[in-house]
Structure formats: structure tokens, C-alpha cells
Amino acid sequence: MASGWKAGQRGAGTRGELVLVAGGAPKKRKAVARDWSKAKDQKFVEALGETCNVTLACEAAGVSTTSAYKRRKENAAFRNAWREAIGLAYQKLELVLIERALNGTEKIVIKGEGREERMREYPNHIALQLLKMHRETAIEAQTEVPEDEVSEARQRVLEKLGRLRERITAQAAAE
Description:
10% strand; mainly alpha
């Protein structure tokens, strides 16, 4: 079949769409609520990108988790959008955790006689994990470049500028 549809596969949910039913000839049918649509795809991916939670994304899109995982398995575009949404959500989560580790969170402590006191609480376990993750990059950033490498880079830049000056002079003379 030129359409690429598998037998029994549900369509995108548009009215009167052609669907192959149990390997038979294509016939039209009305969309049903459980069918996927572009709108459901978009709602699912947006919610997944915000929450990093498949169950919540399914609820937002009005689909079951089983159908979402099945769609991911069978639809490359959906699988790619899913992957990108998880990547985005992961980056957001990492930023929130970094912010929390650096700035802490406000905590209200009840002291004697019912007096409230505000303090900042810092999640040390998150900070330690972040230090482990970024230690090599931080060391590289602090390491000075050896003078011979700096001199070599400076010489290459000066040579390149010289060649550029010669080319510009030659072009000006030719005009």
C-alpha cells in the first residue's frame, strides 16, 4: 500500500479518514476519542517538556500511557518529539536544582513560644552531586594555558593577519 498504514492501525483522528481495518480494503470511518491527533501530540509533548512525567503528559493530552508508549514505538516523528521534550525537561530540572543548591530554599522554623523564624536551607546532597558532575570542567577553566601555547597561538594569528593585509593590498593595487 502506498499510504504506509498498517492493518488495524488507528489514524490521526480526522473525520472521515481512510483506515485499513484487519487487512481489508480501505474504508472511511469517523474519528473516535482515543485516536491520536496533531493537537493531542502537541499537548502531550508540551506537558512532557514541562513535567518530565509521562503519566501527567498523558492526562493532559487525554490519552492512555499504553497508547503513548505504543505511539512512540511506531511513530518516528513522535518518538523524536518525545526525546526532545525529555531533554528540555531535564535541562529545566537541572537549572532548578543548581539554583536551589546555590541559593537554598526558605524554610520557616517554629521556635519556642510559637515564634517563627525564617532561614535558608541548602540541599548539600544536590550540591555535592553537581560538584562531582562539573569538577573536570571547573578544573579546566582554572588551568592556565602554558606560555609556549599562548606564544604559538599569538604567532599564528599575526601570520594570518599579515597574509590578510597582503591580500587586501594586492586587491587595492589591482583596482
